[in-house]
C-alpha cells in the first residue's frame, strides 16, 4: 500500500526486452537504501517487485499484463520516473490509499501555467469516468492529487511548485501518456451497492413467487 507521495525522481538505466515481458534496471538511491529482494516499489504509480539491488539501483521484471495496462512500456533509457516505497504501518498517510494497481492510462491534453501553480488537463478513459469526482482523489503517475474539475472525458489537477519540481509531472508534455489509479474505495462501494441491488431484486422475486 502506498500514499502517492513521491519520494524520489529516479531514472531508467537499462531496459531488456524479454518478448512478453521486460526487465528494468532503475536508479533510485533513496528508495533502495533499505530495499531487498521481494520488496515493493512504486514506479510511476505501478507496484513492482524488487528482484535485486546494487549501488543505488534496483531491477524489476514487468509482465505483459502490466505493460498492457500502464505506460511503463513506453519507458526507455534515460526516462525519469516517480519512485515511492510502501507506506510503513504507524506512519502518516500524507496522500490517500494507493495500491499501485493501475486502472488505465490517460493522455496529458494541456498545461495552463499560473502565477504560482499550473493547471494540467488529462484525458480520462470512459471506463474510469464514474470514479472521478470534483475534490476527490486520483493518482497520476503515482502522485496523489486532488481533482479540480471532473468531466466525462477529462479531468484537471492543480500542481504546486513542489510537485512540478520533484516529480515527472513537471516535465510531461501534451500528448504524453500517464498512469491512472482511481480511489479503490469508490470501486468497493460500487460493487457493494450493485450486490445490494441484486439481492433486493432477488428478494422481491421470491416474495412474488409465494
Explain how this protein is built.
This protein is α+β, with helices and mostly antiparallel strands and 210 residues long. Helix content is 18%, strand content 39%. It is built from three helices and twelve strands. β7 and β8 (118-123) form a beta hairpin.
Biggest sheet descriptor: 6 strands, antiparallel, barrel
Count of DSSP helices?
3
Helix content: 10-25%
Are there runs of 5+ residues with pLDDT below 50, and where? none
User: What is the overall silhouette?
Assistant: globular
Structural class: alpha+beta
Q: Please, what is the oligomeric state?
A: single chain
Q: Termini separation (Å)? A: 48 Å
What is the typical, i.e. mean, pLDDT? 89
The SSE order reads EEEEEHEEEEEEHEH
Number of beta-strand segments: 12
Give a brief outline of the structure:
By secondary structure, the protein is α+β, with helices and mostly antiparallel strands.
List the helices and strands and how they pair.
Elements: E1 8-17, E2 21-27, E3 40-43, E4 46-54, E5 57-63, H1 64-69, E6 80-84, E7 104-113, E8 118-123, E9 137-140, E10 143-150, E11 154-159, H2 161-166, E12 177-182, H3 184-209
Antiparallel strand pairs: 1-2, 1-6, 2-5, 3-4, 3-6, 4-5, 7-8, 7-12, 8-11, 9-10, 9-12, 10-11
Amino acid at each position: 500500500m502506498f500514499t502517492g507521495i513521491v519520494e524520489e525522481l529516479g531514472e531508467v538505466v537499462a531496459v531488456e526486452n524479454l518478448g512478453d515481458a521486460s526487465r528494468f534496471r532503475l536508479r533510485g538511491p533513496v528508495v533502495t537504501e533499505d530495499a531487498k529482494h521481494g520488496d515493493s516499489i512504486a514506479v510511476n504509480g505501478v507496484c513492482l517487485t524488487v528482484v535485486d539491488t546494487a549501488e543505488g539501483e534496483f531491477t524489476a521484471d514487468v509482465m505483459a499484463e502490466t505493460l498492457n495496462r500502464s505506460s511503463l512500456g513506453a519507458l526507455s533509457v534515460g526516462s525519469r520516473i516517480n519512485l515511492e516505497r510502501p507506506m510503513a504501518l504507524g506512519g502518516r498517510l500524507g496522500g490517500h490509499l494507493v495500491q499501485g494497481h493501475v486502472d488505465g492510462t490517460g493522455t496529458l491534453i494541456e498545461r495552463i501555467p499560473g502565477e504560482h501553480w499550473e493547471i494540467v488537463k488529462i484525458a480520462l478513459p470512459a471506463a474510469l469516468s464514474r470514479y472521478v469526482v470534483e475534490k476527490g482523489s486520483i493518482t497520476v503517475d503515482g502522485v496523489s492529487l486532488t481533482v479540480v474539475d471532473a468531466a466525462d472525458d477529462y479531468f484537471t489537477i492543480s500542481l504546486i511548485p513542489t510537485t512540478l519540481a520533484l516529480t515527472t509531472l513537471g516535465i510531461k508534455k501534451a500528448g504524453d501518456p500517464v498512469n491512472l489509479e482511481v480511489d479503490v474505495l469508490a470501486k468497493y462501494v460500487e460493487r457493494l451497492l450493485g450486490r445490494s441491488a441484486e439481492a433486493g431484486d432477488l428478494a422481491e422475486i421470491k416474495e412474488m413467487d409465494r
